[in-house]
Write a structure and sequence with these properties.
two-stranded antiparallel sheet, 20% helix, alpha+beta
Length: 240
Amino acid sequence: MDIAEIRRENMLVLIDGFKTQAKFADAISTPASYISQLKKGVKTSGARVTMGNDIARQIETALNLPYGWMDVQHNSSPAQINNNTYNNHGNQVNNSHISSSLNQSLACCDKGMADLVELQFYPTANFNEQKQTLFLSKQILSVPATFATVAIDNLMQPVIRQKSLVAVSKLQEGDLIYPNKIYVLNMGGLLICRYLERLTGSRMRVYSEYDKTGVTLTQDEFTQEYQIMGSVVWLSSFME
């Protein structure tokens, strides 16, 4: 299957998520007549028409899809976008999904809400600031998530790429800290993803893929610099 047909099939999946084809066209600011041509693959004159890079990127931008999503085959329902996802140990997990509902342009989708979990998205540790809502499939969340954020740096690559969307489960009192498990930390108002390891003598090691040695802090030093917001229970491919 060539890229033109892949893009066409992905567009059909997205169209099915809207009540009408016209509403899909409105959401991506494209004439409905042109969408009909792309859907059929031919112009009224009979000439073949395919989706170029410009319209593919326009759809991704308008619907808040990851860059390049239109160019890859997916096995997804209209409200669930297939991403290359990884578990908390960095192993790839196939057939995971993330909703495209970060953008309000999909508010008119018939989402099938019964199998989706609503999460609040916070770009920083200021939970009082304006937030967005997104939806994740219940099938991909083995542990209930509390909120979602985005990886702001590249220090956890290749396990977590910069701009990856991550779902976070808040720690409960008494929860243990496990080495090689990814945690989201509040560092001066920024939300960062790091590994943690609790050491003897009430010390904590904070490390990353880039710096496996990391820093070892006393408990007081750690609490002055960081606040543990929770553990990563799901992450997507990167977002543009």
